[in-house]
Each structure stands twice: as C-alpha cells, then as structure tokens.
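Researcher: We're teaching a course module on how sequence relates to structure. For the next exercise, students receive a sequence and then see the predicted structure as tokens, so they can try to spot secondary structure elements on their own. Here is the exercise chain.
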Amino acid sequence: MSAQDSCSLTLATGYHARARPLWEGAVDTGALKLKVIPMRDDGERHIRFDGGEFDAAEFSLALYLALKSRGAPWIALPIFPNRRFRHASIYVRKDSPIQKPQELKGKSVGVPSYVNTCGLWVRGFLKDDYGVEAEDIFWKAARSDRGFVPPEKIPVEVVAGKKDLRSRLLDGELDAVISPDGLLLQEPGIRRLIASSKELERDYYSRTRIFPLAHTVVIRRHCLDEHPWVAQKLFEVWTEAKRISLADDADPTYSNFAWIQDLWQEERVLLGPDPWPYGIARNQAALGALIRYAVEQGILKEGWETHSLFHPIQE
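Model: And here is the predicted structure for the students to work with:
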C-alpha cells in the first residue's frame, strides 16, 4: 500500500461491545477511512446492505451462506463479532407438557425465519445430540427468506401477520419457539425448554470446542478489487476493537454487573483469554459444524469448503 492509497468505507455494525470502539473512534484505522453506523436491528441492517447502502456490514452467517452459494456479489471476512451458545434459545409455555428436546418431534416450532443462524445451530444440536431431524418438525417462520426456498423434505410455512411468535406460542398455535431474543423470558407464561441450559452449554463446549458463531463481516467485492489491502486492514481493525472490549470487560468499574470479575474468571477458565477468536484457524470446529449443518438443512449448497467462503487473511 502506498502512502497515497486510501479508502473510504461505510461499515454497518451490530450494537454491542465488540463494535463499540469502532464507532467511538477508539481504533486507529490509518488509511482506511471508516464511517461506522451501529444498528440494533439486524434485519434492517441486512436489508440496507443488500440494497447497496453500505460497503461492508456485520451480517448473519446463515443468511450469508444461503446467499453466497447462490451468487451474492460479496465475500465474508473471518471476523465473528457475534456468537452465543444456543441451548437456552428454545422456549415453551410454562404449562407445556414438553420437557425434553426429543419431544419436539412432530411439533410446530416457530422461528424468526428458516435461514436464521440461531435456528441453524439449534437444529444442528437437536440432530446430533437428541436424534431430532429438521424434517421431524413443522417449522413456522415469522418471515420469508429473500429468494430462498427450503428443501421439500423440510416442512416450512411462513406465518407472517399481526401476531408475533410470542403471541402464537402463548395462544397455543406453536408448541415451541426457537429465538435469539432472550426477552421472551420476561413473559411470565414462557419458560426455557432446557432449564439447565448453562450446564449443557458448558458440556457442549467441553465436548466439541464449539462456541457457536452468529455473525460475520461481509464486504462488496468491488471494494477489494479497487483496494485489496482493505480486507487485511478490516481484520486488524476489528481485532483491535475486540481487544479493547475484552479489556473493558475485565475492568469491574466499567461494567454494570456486581459480580463481573467472577463471571470473567469463570469464562477465562473454560474459554481461555480470548473467548471471541477471529480467523479461520481458531474457529475450525465451529465453522466445520456450521457448514455441515447448513448443507444438511438445505441452506448451503454442497461442495463449499471453509476457505472458499472467506477472503484470505493473514491471521
């Protein structure tokens, strides 16, 4: 990169700690002139990026896989600023007779959309650990996935309308809901299907070394055609932003949580000093499972390898 080579880029991010140093200007981006737009609404961010408003954006991994294998003109960088364990993401009514994940067979289960990364991971561990296949469940999606048609063997119905998934669950139209939205627990009539989800998630990580990925960062190919160095720079910028956010987490004066140091130490023991690794090498187990699940569930066409889905980066 010459001293005169610079690039102005618009970047839409999620609203969270890993991205906050970017929009606060706490990271030196050098010749990469970033205009950062934090957005709470993931769906709106996806639509606006797809519509050409941003050069790069934090993006759903499941949606990226679905669009990428169908010719989307952008490429992901191996940056994963959003990830979460998913055993806690299955909800039922408090009076539901369903007590075990195996009992979801033959039931109607709501999801925000079929191509939803939370749903992808839950369907994956339901199959691997409980013998429940995606085709064993009647999926009720709150919205359609742009241009995506689920496999014929998997029953998916879009139930868009005035009623949200929470209302449909409480009214008995749905037997369960899979959602990344923890606010469902604020509804007194709803409970988690897996009450001991934290213990199961810790065991899941110990067995698989997988901390499930949710988002990546995508960039338009023409930006890299014009400025090839931008991919590496973005990776470094996001990595530095994450380092700052982890340092903030370790500082008890920064957090609103009374026992943040205890939580931080607990996670360090299990997940190591960097629970949010970027790059392909440190995420091989998670990426391998993600791709396998996406192929099994008809979200990703077969034949894609990890390195063909992400722009090469020096990690």
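Model: If you want an answer key for the exercise: The longest strand covers residues 74-83. The chain has a mean pLDDT of 93.
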